Amino acid sequence: MSSPGHNDPVLVPLIRADDQRYPEEVEHLLAVHVRPLLARVLGRYTAVLSEADAEDVAATVDLRVLEKLRRVREGPGDAIEDFASYVAMMAYNAVNDFLRARYPRRARLKTRTRYVLAHDPRLALWTTPAGPACGLAAWKESPASHDASLGERVSGVMRDADRPADAIAAVLRAIGRPVLLDALVDVLADLWQIVDAPPGGLALVEPAQSAQRDAGEELESRQYLRALWSEIRELRPMQRQALLLNLRDQQTVDAIQLLLVTGTATFDELASAVEMTPEELAELWNELPLDDLRIAARLQVTRQQVINLRKSARARLGRRMGR
Question: What is the pTM of this model?
Answer without folding.
Answer: 0.46
